[in-house]
Amino acid sequence: MYIGRFAPSPTGPLHFGSLITAVASYCDAKANHGKWLVRIEDLDLPRTIKGAADTILRQLEAFGLVWDDKVVYQSQRHAYYEQALQQLQTQHLIYPCTCTRKEVADASDQRGVDGIIYPRTCLNHPLKSNAPQAWRVKTEQEVIQFKDLVQGHIQQNIGLEVGDFILKRADNLFSYQLAVVVDDALQGVTHIVRGADLLDSTPRQMYLQHALQYTVPHYAHIPIATNSKGEKLSKQTHAKPIEAQYANDLLYDALSFLQQHPPVALKIAPINEILHWATCYWHLNQVRHQQAICYQM
């Protein structure tokens, strides 16, 4: 059975960029007669805004995007992440690290897809005493490749382009990369439709899925919406929250952004009719093979 999901972080209300992802993941699930789950990724507590999760859920309901099972909160699932970390430790695939960000930056000038590549200081030298420890996963110079359902053939040499990435931070917060892999596996997620800004993270997640002997889901990375400056729509770029009173227009715009060519008459149709049309005529292969597209309100 097809199981999809939408997994927002509660750092603020949903904006048009996040609505696009919600609509795409919802339509793809429903068009394939599957389930659509919602997971709140509130793992990074310092960035979590109080009340934002409830606001997001109310926004989804106001736009007719109703989930099919209990909402999962990452902040309540630390035991599952710790269990996965212990499994990797048993396999000798992770190691402690006491390096600070500055020390990593000073020790290496090799850059990858996500910043400086860690030079394995703590794997090859003694740890600093009485220093907080992070946990890193060992990576190999292995090419991970897959066929993305929107972006096509993707490949990445994880050892050369990413390096040994962190799974648990020195402040005891689990990383997004580990948590999302564990949650997708435990929730039985089979298809992941999300923004192309996460495309570079997918090989890391596949690397962990293989190590933990999880089934690898199908991936589809849709273009992200940007402003006229080429910046991703986000709280940091002052993207406006979506409002229920404009639900018809915004759903129409989201479907248009996704190249589904909705008829203009849908702009004045009830929300349930818009979503019914969207799932009946949904074609993932019509979504543009681009990683970013400018959207003008």
Question: How would you describe this structure to a colleague?
Answer:
By secondary structure, the protein is of the alpha/beta class. It is built from 10 helices and 14 strands. It has helices at 16-31, 52-62, 78-90, 101-107, 121-124, 158-161, 176-186, 202-211, 247-257, 271-280; strands at residues 3-6, 35-40, 72-73, 94-97, 111-112, 115-116, 134-137, 143-148, 152-157, 166-168, 191-195, 218-222, 224-226, 292-294. Helix 8 (202-211) links the parallel strand 11 (191-195) and strand 12. The longest helix is centred in the first third of the chain and has 16 residues, at 16-31. The protein is elongated, with a radius of gyration of 20 Å. The mean pLDDT is 95.
Our estimate of the beta-strand percent is 15-25%
Largest β-sheet summary = 3 strands, parallel
Give the overall pLDDT as a whole number: 95
**How do the SSEs run, as a string of H and E?**
EHEHEHEHEEHEEEHEHEHEEHHE
Residue windows where pLDDT falls under 50 for at least 5 positions: none
According to DSSP, the number of beta strands is: 14
The rounded Rg comes to 20 Å
Highlighted features:
elongated; three-stranded antiparallel sheet; alpha/beta; about 300 residues; three-stranded parallel sheet; 10 helices
Gist of the model:
The chain has helices spanning 16-31, 52-62, 78-90, 101-107, 121-124, 158-161, 176-186, 202-211, 247-257, 271-280, and strands spanning 3-6, 35-40, 72-73, 94-97, 111-112, 115-116, 134-137, 143-148, 152-157, 166-168, 191-195, 218-222, 224-226, 292-294. It has 297 residues and is α/β, with parallel strands linked by helices.
